[in-house]
């Protein structure tokens, strides 16, 4: 068979299907199986797991009747059931994929093929077909846009299915093809496209087009991603387009990106694997030992027993019989049901997260969602959190606050919160100072925003399009409305590809997204105040302008320019229109309309950290290059002749802005001559025609062109912290979790935000790792180590992106040693790859990591960590889709980890250990029984008992342990140190495993030995008919005792009882008795009449009672000893919780409401009430303390506010002067601390006694902070 040649360059011929036959059709296949391949492939996948292979070998050996101790059904039944469940799940999932594929493949599209129009199914579309798409249709394959219903060849698309971006983007056809907007013209089109082979790069399409196949190479037109409409993209606000198909089927960009996600194993999964290996080794040793004993007994004793009928001449394999029989007998030591049990439990954990209304964002109608259903318990074991800054810790709602223009700083006066209200700036604008006008002209022109004019009657429709949501983020679409105006972003205003700069910039990394992220605007905010500006048209009627941008920075800057009188009102294909609301001395008019030709846009990328626009003013023909970006990029591109004083003043202003936590950008400009422009365009055209290395060549040209700028000034934008971020970080810290911030922002801004959000205390010791070379960085690290050795205090680290890269590559071990001991590490000016490397550095130390972010630049970090959390923000859904869990606010991370994570780990730890315990317990009975049966490998229990023990009677009650809680949710918040129990693995470790192993061996031995002791008397007679005790009676007595013991074990281990627990635990015991009696009634059943005899014998009930008492008594004593003399933190808190609940005292005093689930309270140091004399204001509080530990007072009571305010003021005023008195008299105080908790309707006053229940020690951090979150 001829091997297919690897494709290096794809050549697509329009209207020539014969030349394109070598390419695949457009049939989309996302399914894994066919009807004929499902069974073999699914079985192959299931038997690819070691545990399944092990049980298959055991089940196969069971078919050998000579060695099978029980009926083969005991293993084949449960094994088949488990395989059937997995197969059904896989089959149903794949069936849904088949249905989706069928629906997609059978859609009808109008195409032009071989110069003839026709209707074809989507699966029959071929490369080279010209596709006709109407508004709202989804593209069936990857197309190159040829023409559209718009004269300029533009169209609007929504790429949510491709990259998660819900905003609209524009695509523009080449000037040469946009005239081909009819079937007649397109039928005659014989063009050729040369592009790369199929690849997953959704932001790159470096290719070229010939209008005729016989054209020369010089006639090639450059194509970029701006001329593409990829599969899955929806056409919006455009009547129709025509596009030439270049990639089809699973070779499209969407198809190439559909890779299976990396499977993540939890820490417990890895521990289970290790435990399975250890148990298998123990099992192997037991098989050898017991097999040797059995062979020895057979040779010395067994052959003397004539009734055993051992043959004289044995087969050669007889020496294997007894060891193999023991292998089958104790194969249950590795429980067959543990995997399917865990799979079901993990799915339920994910549902608990999805259903949790306490993590529901009522403002945006978004809840938490588990994208990965198999790793919830790892949420309870996190040791390090890596967080993005903008949009994760902050709101990503930008407000223009300050600016520096020509060395003058505006907005610093205390009277003016914003530079836009500074009288000096207003005066400069009024006087039309050149530097100020150029500064705001840069703000108005240097962006990708599209302004849209709307009438008042259209505003409702616009509002609806802005507020549309989707609960699961997968099928996001713009709300359809005939009067709706969809607003495009990322509009590149170039006429054709020759004027279209493509630096490989990501669509999601639009202008100045240096590290932005955030949350969608709240629904209840009025759109008028958010992004609308009023302008008047020629008739004097007012219209509204809405600015739409993916970057909140852009919107803030353009609004600032508009506020100062330079208003951006219209963007056409190549023309930008501004309204100058300034007095013009020449014309005498106050409003001047000016238009600018947009020659080039040099887009922002995370590597460039800057954006430039090449502008020609229509009228004067003056050409300018405006630039803006990060200060470290702009300063090095300034004219060498820049005034030193201006440079120094601007640097100081930028530094001052950053110290206040503001985001800074620098702005500059330079004039461009016609000769210089011509040379640039020529070099650009040459580079832009390259297929390989186009991005690299273009960046070289841009770098050379973006030089010698005149400094205009700097802006400072405020991005506020999200609600409850400092409190959340504080509680996470108390839970023993270290939090690192990885951001692309500069050092000063990162430092201020770190202090504002509680990452670094205001008096914290901060060390900064600096250096541009390895020697300098190494020297800096060494100096920090020396300072740490002297100070011996907690410290915090800062490191920049360039320094970080050096340290990661050359000084990794020293960097790890320095960072691992720091309280927090802040990495600023980092790239996405650097974020990922930092996470991997800690992950490689076997530390459990969690990464949280909201933007596309956080995806690699999120995917690298053990747990990835995405925040639904303003930068699309890329982070959410790449994450394991998604939330809408940073504060919800607290509940996700401390409640869901801890409970999931606590429950899984018990379920796993209990599953192995009950399996080992059962096998111990079987092993000890063989000491009385000549080590023959025979089973003590009948086949039905063996099969139902793990499969039914002890399996289903476990699932209701998923409701168990060792402590209540409220007390976890108040005692975050409880999280250490899970993060340090205290519920599941070698010590706990050993305890469960000893428990299983002891109880198994007690069960069998007591049975042997009770029924050992040969003269024992059954009371009803005088018959002796046979094996069936003893076996069923033993099995009943075993199930009773397992039931009481579950009851003993349950900490939180509910109605469901009672019904299931005790209900399954009743179910056992009823089912046993039913089986007892079937004549052809091996248990026929055995249970009647067993249950009617008082010895049976006495034996069950005695076995359970003796087996459980040491366990109860050990638990009592542990809780009284070596109690855990959870034991102490649970004991106090039980006491308070039993006395009717409040545990959760937080008032539940739909929008406010967390209530703030103040811990105030208090003293003996006599210290305040006879102030009557304290009487209501003094009266209640001593009788009860709390007092509730309704807010509506006029006296309540007075009491609350007076208590706060008096206590805080006397705090310092009475501090020494407190130390001596605290024992006699009526209360030592007073806690005031505010809810929606009431105030709660709690004394120090009631407060003690919330802490395990008197030095709890609860008293050390002014605020506490419940």
From TrEMBL:
Instruction: Give yes or no: UniProt keyword Metal-binding.
Output: yes
Question: What residue stretches are annotated with the P-type ATPase N-terminal domain?
Answer: 12-75
Q: Which UniProt keywords apply?
A: ATP-binding, Magnesium, Membrane, Metal-binding, Nucleotide-binding, Translocase, Transmembrane, Transmembrane helix
What residue ranges are annotated as transmembrane? 277-297, 317-338, 905-932, 938-962, 993-1013, 1033-1052, 1059-1079, 1099-1121
Q: In this protein, which residues make up the domain named P-type ATPase C-terminal?
A: 880-1128
Superkingdom of origin: Eukaryota
EC number(s) of the enzyme?
7.6.2.1
Catalytic activity reported: ATP + H2O + phospholipidSide 1 = ADP + phosphate + phospholipidSide 2
Q: Which Pfam families match?
A: Cation_ATPase, PhoLip_ATPase_C, PhoLip_ATPase_N
Subcellular location per UniProt equals:
Membrane
Q: Which family does it belong to?
A: Belongs to the cation transport ATPase (P-type) (TC 3.A.3) family. Type IV subfamily.
Q: Any idea what this protein is called?
A: Phospholipid-transporting ATPase
The record lists the organism as Anaeramoeba flamelloides
The upper taxonomy is:
Eukaryota, Metamonada, Anaeramoebidae, Anaeramoeba
